Amino acid sequence: MSGVGAITLALVCLILGCGLKYPARLPRLEAFWFQACITWPVIVKAAIGSLIFVGDSGTSFTLVTYGPAIAASVFLLVSRVLSHPKVYAPALILFAFPVLAVPFLVFGRGGPVDLLPLLFFAPAVLYPKTTTSLDAWGRSARTGLVLIAASFASVAYTSPANVIGACRLDKCSAFGEVLTSPITNNGNFAGISVALLLSVALLGVRRFSFVLTAAGALLLVELAGSRAAELSAITVTVAFLIAGQSSKRRSFMGKAVLAAGLVGTLITALYPFAQTFATNRGYLWNRARELTGEHPILGWGPFYWGDQGDTTALIANYSPHNFWLELIVSTGFTGAALVVIAGVLLLRSQPPESRYATVLIIGSILLIGVLESPIQPALLGLAPFAHVLPLMIAAGVASAPPTKTEKVRPTRLHQLNDRAGSVLPRPVIRPERRV
Predict the structure, then answer these.
(1) pTM of the model
(2) Mean pLDDT across the stretch 306-311?
(3) 150: closest CA among 303, 35, 241, 311?
(4) Which end of the chain is less enclosed by CB atoms within 10 A, N or C?
């Protein structure tokens, strides 16, 4: 099967598995935010943007790619502010990252576009007006996957060289071709975006939709040639498959995926691999550990890694390609500790019946973080929505912080009754006599 055939088959599977008849839907503003902030940038950068722009074409590229996201974030933020909202603590902690990056923008080499993460993050700091279900988020994610696949197909039919390229030494697929883009240079961005969306898209689907949605997304991930995306997408799909509708299995599989992601990221962050391991990632990890030792508390700032002039390899890579090393190099162990604290608070804010979904989403991010850096809160980065989406879903499901139950002070009669072992007589109900 060719690359075009794989895209076509993936599109058909995703359309059939989308489940538009499912009743659960996000409120209009949240639905607009989802497609504008998460789906549209993927469509532009990985597909249709290649027909309009050559690489990053400055202001026009930024407006086309992120203009809808800017509008959606502003509308959603204003709506939540006007609804007398309450602050969502996990998001507020992570909001410190883009805020603390502002001095680097003012006194460093940053520009206005580097302020966008601050804007995209702002709505997540506040609870939404109404509760949103996991099924509703899953429906929006499936719609997003359909739109992304349709954009790939439209470009593949008209200008296939803009989305499909020959295999590279480090990237190839079972189809002998891979997704590519003149803007992103390879299919990493597309594959990772699809894998992250898959962890949400499988929420609340029936068996038929599950099979088709998973098949369509996995076809795109395989065609992207991203090993990190494949690791995450396959693991999450198997976890959902095993968990089924059992609450105990859901909880267990969520914890298993989270544990796998944690162990994997820590191994690649700590073990001294050979320099050439995993397409020279060994060199990047070793270099990141050197930098960590020099500024362990607060790190080097969000832009330092890309500004290094040591080697062309470092200039060509956007990050240390590891979840923890990215955080520690840019923000030190302080930043990594804040992420852990926010993650714990995030999970504690969830109702028990929906916590498994948040655990699976975080686990999928960590699995990608074994070989890539999906979380860069102060930058647009590889996947700008990777850290915002779990927060939006978790806050929507929780809806409002738990209220403390009012304590009723027991009377003297209640206290005596408790000590005496319920000695107060209970009323005796006698059957009514019939005349």
Answers:
(1) 0.87
(2) 64
(3) 35
(4) C
**Lookup: tokens for 179:** 């997704």
DSSP characters over 117-165: HHHHHGGGGB--SS---HHHHHHHHHHHHHHHHHHHHHHHHH-GGGTEE
- Pair of tokens at residue 130: 């109404």
Instruction: Tell me what the mean pLDDT of segment 15-41 comes to.
Output: 87
Beta bridge partners of 178: 165
* pLDDT tens digits, one per residue of 262-304: 999 999 999 999 988 888 899 899 999 999 989 999 888 888 8
The span from the CA of 133 to the CA of 108, in Å, is 42
For the chain, domain boundaries: 3-400
Segment holding 166, helix H or strand E? strand 164-166
**What tens digit of pLDDT does each residue of 63-116 get?**
888 999 999 999 999 999 998 778 999 999 998 888 887 777 766 666 677 788
C-alpha distance from residue 346 to each of 2, 25, 277, 354, 394 (Å): 43, 23, 34, 12, 7
Q: What's the rounded Cα separation, in Å, for the pair 43 and 49? A: 7
Residue 162 CA to residue 158 CA, distance in Å, equals: 9
Closest among 326, 365, 325 to 343, alpha carbons compared: 365
